[in-house]
Design goal:
With about 270 residues, the chain is α/β, with parallel strands linked by helices. It contains ten helices and five strands, in the order αααβααβαβααβαβα. Strand 2, helix 6 and strand 3 form a beta-alpha-beta unit.
Length: about 270
């Protein structure tokens, strides 16, 4: 469950466990997205096991913090997180991407704990804006978090949404960019460079924090800093490694959307002890 005094060693152990479970889930399914799931493990653990207010047994509790997973293809890390947080039985992970399962390849709101269906990139920040603006109008204290991909930032709609959030002074919204440097077919900088990234967000009026997205101390500090920021939205640019933790997957676009086979899973698991 959520902890207010984080035990960093325990969170690191959880990260290893999540990486194993993500890869086991993908191998059973025979398809899915490992790279952008492995890069976001510490981000999701910091949210669900440190920062967020929620009740797993009452996923629609009206004062819950909201999470919009704009890069909806990272469903493996989302489902492993939600199952471990108690939103649904871990056994259900075995149905990932199977016909009739709730756990499809892109996150869907029929899954307890998932707020909004995503998959088509570029939309999540606008949805998050709506939730955050709604909270202000209703005088609710819940926060809205939005997980974005770095390749996803090439979508123009993200920048319209970025303008809107600062225009309405949505200091109850925190965007987290999983800056893993790789998109579907190659390096972000080679396909359509998004640098200088922190200057861009700053110029759009955002409180901009740049951290190592695999370092729990930095993630926790940044999330706490967001909670104390008034008058502007916050973005955490989390520098990460696509495929983090598995040497043959790290920074390889080939592992963006490909499941490991049994032998590859066994190799990967040896590195995740
Ligand atoms: C609008 C849209 N265009 C294209 C795709 C296909 N697509 C799925 S994932 C992806 C790459 C996304 O890269 P990034 O945002 O860097 O994600 P990550 O590295 O975190 O996996 C693309 C192009 C999509 N889902 N939606
Ligand atoms: Mg990426």
């Amino acid at each position: 469950m959520r902890s207010s005094t984080p035990d960093i060693a325990a969170l690191q152990q959880k990260a290893l466990q999540f990486r194993r479970e993500i890869l086991e889930t993908l191998q059973l399914a025979g398809s899915g997205h490992p790279g952008g799931s492995l890069s976001a493990v510490e981000i999701f653990i910091s949210l669900y096991f440190y920062k967020l207010q929620y009740h797993a047994q009452d996923p629609k509790w009206e004062d819950r913090d909201r999470v919009i997973v704009s890069k909806g293809h990272c469903s493996p890390v989302v489902y492993v997180t939600l199952a471990n947080a108690g939103f649904f039985p871990k056994e259900e992970l075995k149905t990932f991407r199977k016909f009739g399962s709730r756990l499809q390849g892109h996150v869907h709101s029929k899954v307890p704990g998932v707020e909004f269906n995503t998959g088509s990139l570029g939309h999540g920040l606008s949805v998050a804006n709506g939730l955050a603006l709604g909270a202000k109008m209703l005088k609710k204290d819940f926060k809205t978090y939005c997980i974005l991909g770095d390749g996803e930032l090439q979508e123009g709609s993200i920048w319209e949404a970025a303008m809107m959030a600062s225009n309405y002074k949505l200091d109850n919204i925190c965007a987290i960019v999983d800056y893993n440097k790789v998109q579907e077919n190659g390096l972000v900088k080679d396909i359509k460079n998004i640098e200088p990234l922190s200057d861009k967000w700053k110029s759009f009026g955002w409180n901009t924090l740049v951290i190592d997205g695999h370092d729990f101390n930095q993630l926790i500090t940044a999330l706490d800093e967001f909670a104390g920021c008034r008058g502007k939205p916050t973005v955490i640019i989390a520098n990460t490694i696509k495929g983090k933790g598995v040497s043959f997957m790290e920074l390889k676009a080939a592992w963006h959307g490909k499941a490991p086979n049994k032998e590859q899973l066994a190799e990967a698991l040896k590195e995740l002890k």
